[in-house]
Amino acid sequence: MPRMILPRESRPGKPDQDAGDRSDESPVVPWRKLLAWYRANRREMPWRGSRDPYAVWVSETMLQQTRIETVRGYFERFLAHFPDLRALAAADTADVLKLWEGLGYYSRARNLHAAARRVAESGRFPETAAEWAALPGVGPYTAAALASICADQPEPVVDGNVTRVAMRLRATPGDGRSPQERAAIAAWLRPAITASGAPGDFNQAVMELGETLCSPKAPKCLLCPLRAACRASAKGIPERFPARRPPKALPVRRFFAFIVPDATGRILLAQRPETGLLGGLWELPMAPIVATPGKRNGAAAARRALDALGLQARTLRSLGEIVHVFSHFRQELHVWEAVGAEERRRRKNRSFVHPADVAVATASTRALALCSESRD
Ligand code: SF4
User: CB of 76 within 8 A of CB of 2?
Assistant: First the structure.
């Protein structure tokens, strides 16, 4: 069962931030209004309200480059299998990767696992952003989130959502991607997050506002608690901040990918090296395509590629193409089923397995689904 995370409790000695004299409210970041809006409107998440460093750490790691709705189920399964730091530190890497399967950016899982072992050995969780940032895989954004949520450190989080909100509030020129721009945003937010006395809620409130109201293309300014202080909204052109950069054309890498079943229904999969892209994950045997295969020579080229992989097949059946986008390239898989195939040369990282038993790269999982659909 997923572990229940109790709502954050009021802490004795903390002033009620929504009551009393309001004269200390920052003129540029109306944090009282921001916190009041957040506490009334925040979406329920399995990790929200927790100050447990382990649970918050897992959630923040999963949330990097991944949408909240995607993370929810993964977070609950992960916490059900590894309910605390000790359980994660003692786990096998293969089990950690299996639970991360489909979430992408697998180096996050490897780093989280390695860092959990280090924290378990040290006997205490980090508290400051600098301590968190010393762990593998914990960047400035995650370090600030953890320090503020779990230990009340006034460290502004500056992710894409926060950058957008801050640049709109000030109608700042630029695209907000350079370290200098991000540092300037952090410096600008610091007095307000300190004055708020609730750094964790402050950071989560700005992120939530950016995610729900201050969206990139259609900000809902009429509902926004910060509207009176927002220069971009006053100008009537909030969506022009931050400035957009034209999207970068990603290079394309094309591969033949072969589905090679054995007589018992297992599939031939190759395990990638432990380090690097998709480290330790399993995938279909693949060979690069040197030129785009035309309709006439597609099968002949596929057969040559199969041969280069040390495999031969009675029949080859084309199943279609899969496009999978990584941060720095597009992977195009031309998927073939190799019927009656056998290994002419064995390779040590390759074996027949049940895909459900190992962590399989997403593109290969999609290729296997293509094969199942073709049989329906
Ligand atoms: S008023 Fe509009 S543009 Fe300004 S912060 Fe709110 S939602 Fe964003």
Answer: yes
44 is an active site residue: no
Q: What is the DSSP letter of 56?
A: H
Please indicate whether residue 29, judged by its CB atom, sits closer than 6 Å to ligand 1: no
Distance from residue 187's CA to the centre of ligand 1 (Å): 20
Residue 293 — very low, low, confident or very high, per pLDDT cuts 50/70/90? low
**Which amino acid belongs to residue 280?**
G
The active-site residue, picked from 44, 60, 274, 373, is 60
CA dist 248 and 110 (Å) reads: 28
Neighbours of 313 (CB within 10 A): 19
Q: Is residue 149 within 8 Å of residue 53, measured between CB atoms?
A: no
Rounded to 5, what percent of the chain is helix, strand, coil? 45, 15, 45
Q: So where are the chain's domains?
A: 31-240, 252-375
Please say whether the beta carbons of 354 and 282 come within 8 A: no
- What's the DSSP call for residue 217? S
CATH number of 31-240: 1.10.340.30
Tell whether domain 252-375 is in CATH 3.90.79.10: yes
Q: Measured between alpha carbons, how far is residue 176 from residues 156, 181, 290 in Å? A: 15, 5, 38
pLDDT one-digit tens code per residue, 312-327: 999 999 999 999 998 8
From 161, 165, 189, mutation site for ligand 1 pocket: most ligand atoms within 8 A of C-beta: 165
Only one residue has tokens 């060979």, namely 287
Statement: residue 11 has pLDDT above 50:
no
Lowest mean pLDDT among 45-54, 234-243, 254-263, 367-376: 367-376
Q: Are 145 and 209 in contact (CB under 8 A)?
A: no
pLDDT in tens, 327-347: 899 999 999 999 888 888 888
- CA pair distance 22, 327, nearest whole angstrom: 45
pTM of the model: 0.77
Model confidence at 25: pLDDT above 70:
no
Q: Is the dihedral of CA 357, 278, 133, 14 positive or negative?
A: negative
At 267 the pLDDT is 95
CA 164 to ligand 1: nearest atom:
8
Q: What is the mean pLDDT of the chain?
A: 89
Please tell me if the CB atom of residue 229 comes closer than 6 angstroms to any atom of ligand 1.
no
